[in-house]
Amino acid sequence: MTSHDLDDGQRTDRSTSRSLLADARLANPAAWERLVRIYAPLVASWCRRWNVPEQDLVDLVQEVFISVSSHLNRFRKERPADTFRGWLFTIARNKMRDHLRRRANEPSAVGGSEATQQLQQILDPPHIDREFENITDTVLMDGLLLTALELIRGEFQENTWQAFWGVVVDGRSAADVAADLNMKPGAVRVAKSRVLLRLRRELGDVPD
After folding, report:
1. Would residue 207 count as lying in a domain?
2. Which of 49, 73, 177, 195 could disulfide-link 166, Cβ–Cβ 3.0 to 4.6 Å?
3. Domain range spanning residue 149?
4. What string of pLDDT tens digits covers the 208 residues of the chain?
5. Cβ distance 141 to 169 under 8 Å?
6. Is residue 12 one of the residues assigned to a domain?
7. Beta-carbon neighbour count of residue 16 at 10 Å?
């Protein structure tokens, strides 16, 4: 490992001493902007899968993040299974329930029975679990992770980033990536771990 790599790691560690959620809890505007930028498309995707009309989508997503802002201090990662995405999903699901209940209770609303049927689907736990797993496999990997990676890329030296990308995204061995980048395999593995830790912080998956 070169001194250049060490400087990169020290700089990154200093700049990420707190997680994204820790900064958001402190009402840091930049942290909130990043949080919404990362997670709003995911919430919108859930809403679309629940057949929310496009004209209601912006308001519903806004309601979700207002609730997140009000209750963020209650989120705690006490077990490995506790994730911010899962907590966010629960809030989005509850807001969606409220939305459909309002629609179903409108006295002369067109499609009131349809809203009732949609509400019943969302109240069905097996349906929720399967849907969340599907979303995790598609939108989460293709959208949320790529957005988060884009936001943190500038914090790393190019060699560190290329080492991470080669192993994690391209699926190459550490030895092959090391040969291309004139690094040692151990340095490539360190680079991979460093970027993954920073990514987990950006996603709120590292305990405060």
Report:
1. no
2. 177
3. 3-202
4. 443 443 444 343 333 335 788 888 888 888 898 899 888 888 888 888 887 888 888 889 999 999 999 999 888 777 777 788 889 999 999 998 888 777 776 655 444 455 445 444 443 433 444 444 454 445 455 677 888 888 899 999 999 999 999 998 889 999 999 999 999 999 999 999 999 989 888 887 765 5
5. no
6. yes
7. 19
